[in-house]
Amino acid sequence: MARIFCLGVGLVGSYVAKKLAQSGHEVHAFDPAPHKISNHPGIKIHNLNEKDNPVEVLIQILKSEKNIVFDTDRDIVVNMLPGDIGHRSTSSLANLPWKTVDLSFSEHTPDNFHRAALENGSSIIWDTGIAPGLSNMLLSQAHRLLGTLKIGEVRVGGNPAQPTPGWNYMAPFSPVDVIAEYTRPARVVRDSQVVVLPALSERHNILVPNKGEMEAFLTDGLRSVLESIPSVHMSEYTVRWPGHIQKYIDERDSGAIDIISLTKEWEYDNQTPEFTWMEIIAEGMDGTRMTWTVEDHGGDDGHSMARCTGLVTVCCVEEWIVDPQMIPIGVHPPEILSTEAISRILNRMTDYGIVVDGPNFTPDNH
To answer: Where are the alpha helices (DSSP H) in the chain?
Structure first.
């Protein structure tokens, strides 16, 4: 079994750490507030101070504890830290000859560290969640089968199972990262060119099966597929209950937005039923269309966003352990994964009760 070093064990990171420990791996967790994994078998906790650099702490532990040795052939770092601290940690990891699965999400993408990774023998796969992540993999598979896409569209959201008072929302991961999604201009493809549109634009209502009318709006989640997948028109839309984003816009425009207050008001509530839903639509130039939907309402092992996001990360880790050459030296997006690996990830998700509806693929029909 491998040693897995998990940087960040919040709502999603704790799920990943637990799953990897349950699979028999030796898991080391680094977090300033690791209470979500306290006393969990197979996980060794390393407490961080708020100002600590997690990668530097990991390096010091490897130097000081003789019974912990990093095996560069098998061991993996999983970066699940939020926002800018996650990005800074990936920057540090690009200078080390290690393997990294990077779930962190910030405005600055880690492909800028590709040259440093090449120079230092580092291998990094980034954006390994549901969207970006699984969405990239499915769009890439559609491109392999259909060629240049006339349309590529991602619709995704994690929300309460029914509308709720107030915001109609609770954040299934860092609220700071959610707010960043609402403020960052959206990069999309229009007429085969990458263009930048205002955040929250192109608002429109959609019908989500078994839920009814919800609202979708542009967010900046396409990232690597803007360049890696040729397309005429490509967009990512975040999905929320009607009223949520208008309330945010009204408070923003009035100057009433306060991040500390929003963090409290959007705090995740385990007692509120919730669900994650994603739809991927891909259409080739000849009109052939492929559509996938992913839906989950949570399970005994965790809430839906932790499951839908975390299982993709867990699968990337375990695929890499089985195939140590899966990711070459450098910084690579999730669409680098093979058809076979993507198929196994979809099958693993369905094994856990996540509903995945759409074409699967095997080596025979690739």
So the answer is: 13-22, 54-64, 83-93, 114-120, 134-146, 175-183, 225-228, 244-254, 259-265, 304-322, 339-351
